[in-house]
Amino acid sequence: MKKIKKYNYKYHLDKYGKLIALEENKEIPFNIKRVYYIYEVEPEVRRGFHSHKKLEQVLICVHGSVKILLKTPNEEKIIILDNPSQGLLHWY
Length: 92
Hints:
With 92 residues, the chain is mainly β. The protein has one domain: Jelly Rolls. The chain is built from no helices and 7 strands. It has strands at residues 4-8, 12-14, 17-19, 56-59, 66-71, 76-81, 86-91. The radius of gyration is 14 Å and the shape is globular. The termini are close together. The mean pLDDT is 89.
């Protein structure tokens, strides 16, 4: 799984809280075509079960935590995202 990279995004902190700004072709290293988010998933519910022939995506867990199961015919890897300043870049 050579095409996976975990990023730690820089945040700005002041008395109003933390702010992270992400721009395409900067912190997100490609053109953004779609943004979607998933929420209120019950514990132990699994999603996905599909694959892509060509894909560039960044996964960010903005609240709570999520386990990402990445599989190829020869390898399996679990990555946990539990910090909103972290992103998982994945591409084929």
